[in-house]
C-alpha cells in the first residue's frame, strides 16, 4: 500500500470520537489492501491520543471490515473456481488437442488450490503400470519420468479404492506401499503433502489427478471436491478423445463402402449438429429443457429431463458413465461430483446408434454443468436474502432508503404488512452430520418459499426464520399453518412454525423484526410444549397464555395434577364434566347461565358440579384453585 493511501486512511480516523469510524476501512476495502493494513488507523488513533470510545469504534469497524474482506475473498475464490470449471468445460466442448486440454486442467487445478505442483498420471494397460501424463510446477526430471507399478504409492491406493486420498506428510504415511523409485522421485521433487483423486470412466479408474506441496499442508474438503471436479473433466476429455479416435476409425472404414458412408455420415452430421447446439446453449446461458429440446431434434425423438427415472437403470448409467437401455427408452444419468441430479430420458427409441448414444451422454454432462451453475446462482440469491433478513434482525442497517433498495433488488417490499415466522425441525438426526444436512434442507426449502412469495429467509438459532408478506384476507395463523405444511412436505420431516402478529413499515422501524421474531419463537415453543409438533400458530392464538408457556415447563404435568381426575372420569364414563367446568367459568360461575349455555336442566348442572367437587376437593371454587383450574382447562383445550 502506498504512503499516500496510508496517510489518507489515517486522516479519515477524524478528530471527533463520534466521527465515522468506518470510512478508513471502507477506503482500504475499496483499494483491496492487505489484512495488516487494517491496523494502521488504530495505531494512528492511539498515537494521536484518541479517546477510548473512538478507539473502540475503530476496533469494531476494523473487525467488520475484515469480515467483509474475508467474504469478498471467498466469493472471488468461488467465482474463480466456477469460471475455471466452465472454461475447462468449454475447452472440452471444442476439444481438438487432448494434451492442451489436460495441461489446462492441471494448470487451473494448481492455481486454484494454490499448490506448488500438480500432475496427472494414467494407467498403461498394455505394460501393466502407471506413467506421468502431465505435470505442472515440477522441476525434477526423475519425477517427471516416473513409471509406477500398479498398487504402488499414494496413487496406487487411490486407484485401488476409487476414492480420494490425502497425506499431510508423504514419507511418514504408512497407509500405502512405498517403493524406492517412487520415494526417490518424490524426494527429488521435495514434496511433502499430496492429495490424489481418481479419474473415473464409469466404475473404472483410468488414472489419478494430484495436487502437492513442498511443505506440510491440510487440504480442505472443498479443495478436494474441486480437484475431483477437474478430475471428472479430465476423464471426460480423455473419453472424448477416445471417441474422436473411434469416430476417425469408423470414417476410415466407411470410405471403403459407399452405402456405409451414407449411413454413417448422417450420424456424424447429427453429432456435429448437437455439439454446436450444446456449445451455443452453454454460451448463451440456456436451461436444461433447452438442452433436451435440442437433443430431441437431433436424435429425432422425445428427450426429457426428469428427477425420477427407473432406479436400477439410473444407477447402472451412473456407475458405468454411459446411457443404458430400459425397455424402449434410453436413460443417461445426470451427475456431478458423485451427486445424482436426475436423468435425460430418450422415449420410445429402442434402436440407438452408438454415436447417438454418445450424443445423449454428452447432453447429460452439459445438463449437469447447467444445473450446477443454476444451483450456484440460486444459493447466491439465498445468501443475499438471508443477509438482508439478518441485518433486519440484528439492526445492523438502519437507513430506510438503503433497506428499501436492497429489498427491491430481491423483489420484496418492506412497506407491505409482513409476518415473521420461526420454523424448526422436530426430532434429531442419527448423528451431527445428518442433523446439519436436515437443517440445510429446511433452510433451502424456506429460501425457495420466500423467493416465490416475495419474502426473505435466513438460518437462525438451529432453525429458520422467514419474513413473508400478508396478502388480502389472509391471517398470521393461516399463514403459519400453511408454511408448516409446505416446509414439512418439502423436507419430508415434521416442521413446526410459530408466527408473530402482523408488522408493517419495517424499513422505518427495523427493530420490529427482532421483536416479532421473539414473539414467533415464543409461539413455536408453546406449540412444542403443548404437543402440537408439525402445526403452525400465531401470537393471536395464545394470548397471555403464550407468555406463560415460554421456557421449559411441564405443561402436561400441570394439567394432569390440576384437572386430571375430571379428564380421566370423562374418558372412562363418557360424561361431560370438563365441558361443564368450561361453561361454568365462562358464565361467571352461575349455574343458571351455565344450564342455558349447555342446554340442560339446572339440576343436571348442579349434579355435575357436585361430582367435580368430589373429584377435585371441596376448595375447588376458592379463587386460587379456580384460577389454576381455569388455566388448566385452557391449556387442555389448546393441546386438544
Gist of the model:
The chain is α+β, with helices and mostly antiparallel strands. The protein contains 23 helices and 15 strands.
List keywords for this structure.
5-stranded mixed sheet, 15 strands, 640 residues, alpha+beta, 6-stranded antiparallel sheet
Kindly describe this structure.
The protein has helices at 3-11, 23-31, 40-47, 52-93, 98-113, 141-144, 153-161, 180-189, 221-254, 258-283, 288-299, 311-320, 354-394, 400-409, 432-452, 476-491, 511-529, 545-549, 555-573, 577-586, 591-598, 602-616, 623-639, and strands at 117-124, 129-136, 147-149, 165-167, 193-201, 204-213, 302-306, 324-326, 329-336, 339-347, 418-425, 456-460, 463-469, 495-499, 536-538. By secondary structure, the protein is an alpha+beta fold. It has a six-stranded antiparallel beta sheet, sandwiched between helices. Strands 12-13-11-14-15 form a five-stranded mixed beta sheet. A four-stranded antiparallel beta sheet has the order 7-10-9-8. Helix 1 packs across helix 3 (40-47), helix 10 packs parallel to helix 13 (354-394) and helix 15 packs across helix 16 (476-491).
Amino acid at each position: 500500500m502506498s504512503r499516500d493511501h496510508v496517510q489518507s486512511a489515517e486522516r479519515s480516523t477524524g478528530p471527533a470520537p463520534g466521527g465515522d469510524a468506518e470510512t478508513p476501512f471502507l477506503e482500504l476495502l475499496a483499494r483491496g489492501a492487505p489484512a495488516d493494513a487494517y491496523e494502521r488507523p488504530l495505531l494512528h488513533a492511539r498515537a494521536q491520543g484518541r479517546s477510548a470510545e473512538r478507539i473502540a469504534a475503530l476496533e469494531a469497524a476494523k473487525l467488520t471490515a475484515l469480515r467483509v474482506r474475508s467474504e469478498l475473498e471467498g466469493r472471488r475464490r468461488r467465482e474463480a473456481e466456477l469460471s475455471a470449471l466452465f472454461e475447462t468445460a468449454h475447452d472440452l466442448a471444442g476439444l481438438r488437442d487432448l494434451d492442451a486440454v489436460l495441461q489446462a486442467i492441471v494448470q487451473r487445478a494448481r492455481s486454484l488450490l494454490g499448490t506448488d505442483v500438480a500432475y496427472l498420471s494414467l494407467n498403461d494397460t498394455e505394460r501393466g503400470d502407471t506413467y506421468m501424463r502431465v505435470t505442472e510446477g515440477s522441476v525434477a526430471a526423475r519425477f517427471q519420468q516416473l513409471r509406477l507399478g500398479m498398487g504402488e504409492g499414494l496413487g496406487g491406493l487411490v486407484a485401488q479404492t476409487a476414492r480420494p486420498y490425502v497425506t499431510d506428510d508423504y514419507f511418514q504415511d504408512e497407509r500405502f506401499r512405498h517403493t524406492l523409485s517412487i520415494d526417490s522421485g518424490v524426494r527429488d521433487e521435495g514434496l511433502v503433502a499430496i492429495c490424489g483423486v481418481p479419474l473415473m470412466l464409469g466404475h473404472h479408474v483410468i488414472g489419478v489427478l494430484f495436487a502437492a506441496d513442498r511443505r506440510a499442508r491440510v487440504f480442505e474438503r472443498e479443495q478436494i471436491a474441486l480437484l475431483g471436479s477437474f478430475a471428472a473433466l479430465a476423464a471426460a476429455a480423455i473419453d472424448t478423445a477416445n471417441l474422436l479416435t473411434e469416430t476417425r476409425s469408423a470414417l476410415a472404414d466407411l470410405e471403403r463402402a459407399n452405402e456405409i458412408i451414407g449411413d454413417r455420415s448422417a450420424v456424424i452430421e447429427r453429432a456435429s449438429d448437437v455439439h454446436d447446439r450444446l456449445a451455443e446453449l452453454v454460451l448463451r446461458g440456456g436451461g436444461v429443457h433447452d438442452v433436451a429440446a435440442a437433443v430431441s431434434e437431433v436424435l429425432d425423438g422425445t428427450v426429457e429431463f426428469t428427477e425420477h427415472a427407473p432406479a436400477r437403470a439410473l444407477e447402472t448409467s451412473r456407475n458405468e458413465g454411459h446411457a443404458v437401455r430400459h425397455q424402449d427408452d434410453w436413460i443417461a444419468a445426470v451427475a456431478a461430483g458423485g451427486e445424482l441430479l436426475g436423468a435425460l430420458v430418450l422415449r420410445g427409441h429402442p434402436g440407438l446408434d452408438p454415436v447417438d448414444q454418445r450424443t445423449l451422454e454428452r447432453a447429460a454432462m452439459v445438463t449437469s454443468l447447467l444445473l450446477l451453475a443454476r444451483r450456484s446462482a440460486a444459493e447466491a440469491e439465498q445468501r443475499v436474502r438471508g443477509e438482508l433478513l439478518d441485518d433486519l434482525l440484528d439492526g445492523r442497517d438502519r437507513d430506510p432508503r438503503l433497506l428499501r433498495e436492497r429489498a427491491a433488488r430481491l423483489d420484496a417490499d418492506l412497506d407491505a404488512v409482513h409476518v415473521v415466522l420461526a420454523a424448526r425441525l422436530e426430532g434429531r438426526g442419527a448423528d451431527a452430520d445428518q442433523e446439519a444436512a436436515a437443517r440445510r434442507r429446511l433452510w433451502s426449502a424456506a429460501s425457495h418459499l420466500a423467493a416465490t412469495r416475495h419474502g426473505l429467509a435466513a438460518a437462525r438459532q438451529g432453525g429458520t426464520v422467514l419474513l413473508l408478506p400478508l396478502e388480502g384476507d389472509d391471517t398470521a395463523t393461516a399463514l403459519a399453518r400453511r408454511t408448516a405444511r409446505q416446509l414439512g412436505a418439502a423436507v419430508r420431516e415434521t416442521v413446526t412454525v410459530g408466527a408473530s402478529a402482523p408488522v408493517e413499515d419495517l424499513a422505518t422501524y427495523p427493530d420490529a423484526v427482532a421483536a416479532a421474531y421473539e414473539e414467533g419463537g415464543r409461539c413455536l415453543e408453546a406449540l412444542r410444549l403443548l404437543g402440537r409438533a408439525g402445526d403452525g400458530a400465531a401470537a393471536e392464538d395464545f394470548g397471555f397464555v403464550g407468555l406463560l408457556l415460554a421456557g421449559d415447563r411441564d405443561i402436561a404435568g400441570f394439567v394432569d395434577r390440576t384437572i386430571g381426575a375430571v379428564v380421566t372420569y370423562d374418558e372412562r364414563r363418557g360424561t361431560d364434566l370438563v365441558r361443564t367446568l368450561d361453561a361454568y367459568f365462562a358464565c361467571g360461575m352461575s349455574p343458571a347461565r351455565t344450564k342455558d349455555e349447555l342446554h340442560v336442566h339446572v339440576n343436571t348442572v348442579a349434579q355435575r358440579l357436585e361430582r367435580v367437587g368430589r373429584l377435585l376437593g371441596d376448595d375447588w371454587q376458592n379463587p386460587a384453585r379456580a384460577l389454576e383450574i381455569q388455566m388448566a382447562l385452557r391449556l387442555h383445550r389448546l393441546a386438544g
